[in-house]
Specification:
22 helices; 5% strand; globular; mainly alpha; 57% helix; 5 strands; 420 residues; five-stranded parallel sheet
Length: 420
Amino acid sequence: MESMDFSTFCHISQYGDRGYQKLPRMIAMSRTALWAPSSVILKSGHSGLTCKKFLEYVNDRNIRIFGREEWLLDPEFRNSRPWPEAAWNEDVDGQIKEICERDRSEPFERRRVVIAPEEQSQEYVENYVATKPDEVRWWIGLLHDEKRIRTIPRGTREAAFRELHRPVEAVKRIVRDAYNHGQAISYSQADAPFLARGINPKFRNILAEAPPLVYSGTNIPPVTRYYAKTPAIRRKYVDLKLSDIAEQMMMVLGAFDKHARNRLQADSLDRFIGGEGRENLMQWISKIYGLTRRSDARKVDGLVLDELVSDLSCGKFSNVWEEFRSHLDETLCLIGGAGTALIGIATAPVVAGIGVATSTYPIVKGIGRQAGFVPGTFSGPKWPFLYAYDRNPNRRYWTQLQDFTNQLQSDAYSDPADIP
């Protein structure tokens, strides 16, 4: 993973409208890989992005799309699905198909739309239901529990309900989806998966233990990213700690969306991802991921907010006058004769020097820039200011962000599970 190119993966349609509403946040924090997105939901008005903006981000490689060949290329297959949101829309899916066809000859990492190999879950699923009868009974009990069933992603539970008259087949559908999700995550080569908070632990474990897809071809690099060493006998191919961190980051950005003044402006997201804001955020979250990978036993609950509160509170603003005094010799060499007139400004009492300092501030500011010290620079993370306020750091916003993030931290453990 490059420090300034952080990527995530989301099986977005599993989470219904709420998954699509979070699209701007996903893109703000990462290069985003999506599995088989629905043009119906994108066009419905429930999405956080318009179809036009979605396609722009695909073309610009801010979004990558993954899916099976029939989903990406076959309108008849899509229109035959029992899920209404699978329907083909030529304005959106037709363009995605064209991009897919154009990118076929590109190296894997350059493809904007990627055809994944056929699913390879059948043997695992059949073996699971044949050798784990207690597990099958447990899943059947969950299917009939109105509260616990909501710990299964929405798309999977709806598909399982269609098979409820055949309980074992309904269980197979859940296990199959969990296994396929894990393989798709690994195949995408993304740095971290998005999995909603509160997903059933058994579902997550099947997902994490699904081995990488077996594929043919020379343009696809081998999957090595998710081979995580664990004390357990079974190997985890998807590091679930990284999913927890990604979801925490999404929660923070969601809270900032409510706190922000400019987030609802149409071009606000474009300014953030096109400027230094997202690059700074990618660097910052890469640091967080490094903390989680250095120790398998490290607890990640609340880690994002803890680090953000700490980094904001430890951040400092430079003082132009202190820097001017500390660099006085170098500055005098730089400005020559003008230095004599400015010594009084840098050293005189504030009250006595107000009139002179005010009138000559543009000169001092220009000298400061040439000397290599910029007034008001902030030593902490810059992205919270650019995301929340669309502005560079200043002391007023700094105070507001500290108060806001401290309150978020105190409220962090009171939120309910977030399974759409």
